[in-house]
């Protein structure tokens, strides 16, 4: 399944945000910042990663629903995409 450009762009943007948040966590640890501040930043990074994954699965589900035969031939049968979703949940 080829991902649409808007999905790829969105996921890449989210991953860049995560990278910045992880770098921020490293700096915070080096600076001896408060635990709650570090955890808040880690939580934000985790949420951003989850959102990137959900964006990919949503694109897969859309593809499956719009092109069921083609999706199955490509190895993206609806039940396989549902399993991918459950890995994120």
| CATH homologous superfamily (4th level) name | Metal-sensitive repressor, helix protomer
Number of helices: 4
Strand content: under 5%
Q: Could you give the order of the helices and strands?
A: HHHH
Mean pLDDT: 91
What's the β-strand tally? 0
Structural class: mainly alpha
Lay out the secondary structure.
Elements lengths: L4 H27 L3 H32 L1 H6 L4 H11 L1
Helix pairs in contact: 1-2, 2-4
Descriptive overview:
With about 90 residues, the chain is mostly helical. Helix content is about 85%, strand content about 0%. The protein has helices spanning about 5-30, 35-65, 70-75, 80-89. α1 (about 5-30) packs antiparallel against α2 and α2 (about 35-65) packs antiparallel against α4 (about 80-89). The model has no long low-confidence stretch (mean pLDDT about 90).
């Amino acid at each position: 399944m080829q991902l649409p450009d808007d999905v790829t762009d969105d996921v890449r943007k989210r991953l860049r945000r995560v990278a910045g948040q992880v770098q921020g966590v490293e700096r915070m640890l080096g600076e001896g910042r408060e635990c709650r501040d570090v955890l808040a930043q880690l939580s934000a990074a985790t949420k951003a990663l989850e959102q990137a994954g959900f964006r990919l699965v949503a694109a897969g589900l859309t593809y499956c629903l719009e092109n069921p035969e083609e999706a199955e031939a490509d190895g993206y049968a609806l039940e396989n995409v549902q399993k991918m979703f459950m890995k994120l949940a």
